Amino acid sequence: MQLQKHALLSPAPGTQRELISLHYGKTGGSKAYIQASLHADELPGMLVAHHLRLKLNALQAAGRISGEIILVPMANPIGLSQYLLHMHQGRFETGSGENFNRHYPDQTEAAALAAQAQLGTDSAHNVQVLRRELKQAVEASVADTELKSLRRTLMALSCDADIVLDLHCDAQAVMHLYTETPCWPECEALANYLGARVTLLAQDSGDNPFDEACSQVWWKWAKRFEGRFPIPQACLAVTVELRGAADVEHGLAEADAQNIIDFLGYRGLISGEVPAMPAAAGDARPLAGCMPIKAASAGVLTFLRQAGEAVAVGDVLAHVICPLSGAVAELKSPVDGLFFARDFVRFASAGMTVAKVAGREALRTGKLLSA
């Protein structure tokens, strides 16, 4: 294993943060990139990364890593250091207010312009050329703030990978995934290995989150060069939601790490016998069918249903109780679907999204991700 340190742009004299990446195997073949806790207060991914590190160390010692695997065990040193009144603030940068998992720069056109004279009828050759030009465009991009330098560093490490796994979690939730619709044929095996209850699909969900920044270049290039050069969907990029924020347990993390290792073996990055793919624990549904459950009034929040339950339209999922009047407001499911995630906060403000139900039909438009 090779450990690399990547200095971020210093935000003030005497201050310097760095990103650490762990490199396994060898370059030139298939590549997987895995990062943990881009939202720095979502900690299950860091524990999974710890177990991945132990397993990858053993696999490399045994000579079983066939491709290149990069592990970033803590992807956000900025967010990890942010505290306000004893509370960790890891989702948004406190200086700009920006979500750490949004607004990744789009180098699709720059790479296409640099690559087009080198493209031909061989799709494998085209992938190689486009990856090279994309990486050069990312590395040459301007990063004039610490946050932008973090985004550039993460993209430079990941943009030429075949597989990108971004490890997150929800508040209280079952295992679920987010990926772009063109990635689903290759994502289905990952969903099975991880036991995901639902995979939420969209093609450009809005605000350019990290996983889509890695995968969307390929379907955009395929559309741009359609009829001229064959361009496959050469990157499977997935946001892996490792259940809830409090699910930081060795048993869960070790099993999740092993499931990721098994998937990498299935994809040929690790040699040796590959365990049989488990049966599907869930299915794929449109992100536009994921319905937010909002509190219309403020009050004490108590749930009547558990994350992971199937619900029907009209089912009462929670009560919001006004502590002064005693009024009880019912929060009902707007669709038939999987009640897959809920908040851990137990006082709801008016308009607050407190839960999510994944339906089967696309009902929403516009930006589909939460803040």
Give the C-level CATH assignment of the largest domain. Answer: Alpha Beta
Largest sheet: 9 strands, mixed
Annotation, overall tally of beta strands: 20
Across the major sheet, the strand order is 1-2-4-3-7-11-9-10-12
Which secondary-structure class do the elements indicate? alpha+beta
What is the domain tally? 2
Distance between the termini: 36 Å
Name the shape in a single word.
globular
Just name the CATH architecture of the largest domain. Answer: 3-Layer(aba) Sandwich
> What integer value in Å does the Rg equal?
21 Å
Mean pLDDT: 97
Q: What percentage of amino acids are in beta strands?
A: 25-35%
CATH superfamily of the largest domain: Zn peptidases
* N-to-C SSE string, H for helix and E for strand: EEEHEHEEHHHEEEHEHEHEEEEEEEEE
Low-confidence stretches: none
Properties at a glance:
371 residues; 2 domains; nine-stranded mixed beta sheet; 8 helices; Aminopeptidase; 20 strands; globular; 28% helix; OB fold (Dihydrolipoamide Acetyltransferase, E2P); alpha+beta
